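Hey, weird one. I pasted the Stage V sporulation protein E sequence into the form twice and got a warning about non-standard characters only the second time. First submission, copied straight from the form history:
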Amino acid sequence: MVYSASFYYATNKGETPIYFALKQLIIGIAGIILMLIITFKFNYRIFSNMFLAKVLYGISIILSISVMFIGQTVNGATRWLKMGPIQFQPSEIAKIAVVIMLSSYIIKHRKEMNKWKYIVGAWGIILFPTLVVAIENLSSAIVIFFIGLMIMFVSSPKVWYYLAFMGIGACLAVGVYFLAITTEPNEEINIPIVKHILKPYRLDRIRVWKNPWLDPRGKGYQPIQALYAVGSGGVFGRGLGKGVQKQDFLPEPHNDIIFAVICEELGLVGAIILLLGYSILVVRGLSIAIRATDYFGTLVAVGISTMVGIQVLINVAVNTNTIPTTGMQLPLVSYGGTALAILLATLGLLLNISCTSSIKKLSK
């Protein structure tokens, strides 16, 4: 799918038609090898050790903070770090780091998690990286928050507690929307902390989301073209490789907006099949969580499953203009480079939990 979405774009950039597809294939193969190594030659329980969990968590925080000072800017967004030939988003590491750190913390204090001291500690683990990442990458910050929320729910399912958080979240969303429609374009908000997260370009995205035709050749261009692509695919699509919107209309169609290309070329049927595939993956992950041989495995599996599911929901919602534009890739499908390798390694950890459960079951 990356080849179909990118060959026209690659040619216009002076590259060979298979440029992006070949890079994706090479990184994908490396990621699959890493996934298999983690699946069969690794023991996920090593991360239940608080020291190792803290090391991974600390590294992810340091890298995320570094983005603000030495980050690489791509298409106006500063989200990447470059180390030699490797360029990556620290937020991808932060996602799995929060899963492991929070799970380890809950395991260590499992009998005390009904006390506010430890509840606050757990939320600190979630909110600190969420706020740090949100400064430059709001969509990944939302994913991190929901990962933490779901793990906390599984570890302490008090419905009223989470309904309260959802209520607070809804109030914040309404507040952000109000700020977006009451401030002028490019106007900064003079509220500490808030002004660093709700930057003018983010508020502009909310205005454009409400009505893309306010700026059809600027910030509204991508959502309009994506909607054209989604709508023109019909039930069965134009056919693989026959899409029109990827030809100088959709910006970088092989990246975040690839779901629109899928809808145009494979139609409603292709989109439904893809979403069913993701649903099976998430349900399978939750099944692994239920069958895990220990509580740590359960929490990690829930976190990974949530991570994949939330990313899919955000990407599809952006492509259909259900929510404002964010830079969220479609897992395993978008051209992603190191993000793909990190995700495959993370899925290897999930499979390792499954294998451990199966081996223990067979040994009985």
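That's the output from the first submission. The warning seems to come from a hidden character in my clipboard, not from the data itself. Residues 258-291 form the longest helix (34 residues).
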